[in-house]
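Pipeline run #58 for the internal structure catalog. This entry was flagged by the ingest filter as a single-chain record with no existing model, so it goes straight to prediction. Upstream metadata was stripped on purpose; only the residue string is passed forward. Reviewer on rotation: M.T. Logging verbosity set to normal.
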Amino acid sequence: MSGWLVVAAGLLALERACYVWIARAPRSFQRWCARPAVARLGEPVNVVRALFLAFKALQAAVFAGWCLVFGDAFPALSDDGVALAVGAVLMLVGQTLSGLVFYRLGRIAVFFGDRLGYDVQWCEAFPFSVLAHPQYVGSVLTIWGFFLAARFPHDDWFWLPVVETVYYAVGASLENRMVDGAADQPTAAARAMRIRS
């Protein structure tokens, strides 16, 4: 299993590393977006959106691959009714939180608009009123729920959720620290943008 875990962890790290790069070095990212092959996607916020979609497809492929490698069939569901129910609830809550972030912030704000030069409004409405990182919390809950429902009680069920939990926590911390090498004293708009899925 260790070889598969290393491969899966490496592939899943790409998303977090990219978002840390965008958050901490937005001018570098904007220069990259100006390259002809990338510029045809549109403004940098559109490039982030395209990356987001590609990373979600990669994440889903890694999760499905994990289930295929370690399971008898895909999709497979846990034989444990409690695990299945708790997993479903976690996925529902997680996706609700993520959806609310998109609803509250809008496309530009969700996709690093504050770091890419847009004036983004500070949001204090739920779920931001109770969670500092509702989209990350939502993503992590969804991942735990999926693996609880799909792989519990097998010995491998918790490995990728643990990896992703660490990645999201570290990513959230690193995204908030600096912008292009200068100390980041975030504006209210920047504080609203701490979260990425």
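catalog note: Strands lie at 178-179, 182-183.
catalog note: Residues 2-192 form one domain.
status: ready for reviewer M.T.
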